[in-house]
Structure formats: C-alpha cells, structure tokens
Amino acid sequence: MTTIKPVETENQPSSASSAEESSVKVKSWSFWTVFSSTFLTIFLAEMGDKTQLATLLISAESQSPWVVFLGAAMALIATSLLGVLIGYWIARRLSPKTLDLAVALLLLLITGLLMGDVIS
C-alpha cells in the first residue's frame, strides 16, 4: 500500500502559543505530489498485469491496435473514475486511519483467499 505523507503548513499568526499552532496545522498535498504518486503507482501496478496482457492479446487478434487502445483507455478511465468517486465518498465518512485499517484487512483477506486457492 502506498501512503502519501501530507505537507504540513501553518495558517496561524506568529504570536499564538505552540499548543494552538499544532492544533491549527492544515494538511495539504501539492498537485504534483498527488499527481506523480498516483501516476507512478498506477503505471507500475498495471505493467504486466492481466489487463495489459488481455489488451495485448485483443490487439494481436483484432489487427486494430488503435481501436483496442481507445477501448482499453476508456475502460481504465471509467474504472479509475469509479475508484476516485467511491474513495472520495468513503473518505468523507471514515477517518484515514480507519480507511487504512479497512484496506489492510481487505488485502489480507484477498491474500488469504488467493493463497488458499493456490494451495488447493
């Protein structure tokens, strides 16, 4: 799991006490931090996965690489949009810590199911 560490900025006058300053710190991520980490994570995760192999095979069989590219790109955009919208909806209802724990447990469950499938 990739975790992005937010950049902390202070929006507090310099005369405030340190306790007040620490409670008012605003977490913000720059556009390029979010964009580059998202791009690299998705790009590396998609390299050589079953979706790419399926796209490769469809392109080889159809002899229409640009149509396959357009279909695959639209499908990836649609699934990414769905993930972003669901993630945004969930993030408004759960804390980041709860969300991290839930995703970790879900990945452990998937790993256990896959290991069980391989063993049997």
Please describe the topology of this protein.
Elements: E1 7-9, H1 18-24, E2 26-28, H2 31-46, H3 50-62, H4 65-91, H5 96-119
Antiparallel strand pairs: 1-2
Helix pairs in contact: 3-4
Strand order of the largest sheet: 1-2
Task: Tally the helices.
Answer: 5
The major beta sheet can be summarized as: 2 strands, antiparallel
Helix content: over 70%
User: What is the distance, rounded to the nearest whole angstrom, between the alpha carbons of the first and last residues?
Assistant: 27 Å
The backbone outline, from C-alpha atoms, is extended
User: What's the β-strand tally?
Assistant: 2
The ordered string of helix (H) and strand (E) elements is: EHEHHHH
Average pLDDT score? 83
Strand content: 5-15%
Radius of gyration based on Cα positions? 21 Å
List segments where confidence is low: pLDDT < 50 over at least 5 consecutive residues: 10-16
User: By helix and strand content, what is the structural category?
Assistant: mainly alpha
Quaternary status of these chains? Answer: single chain
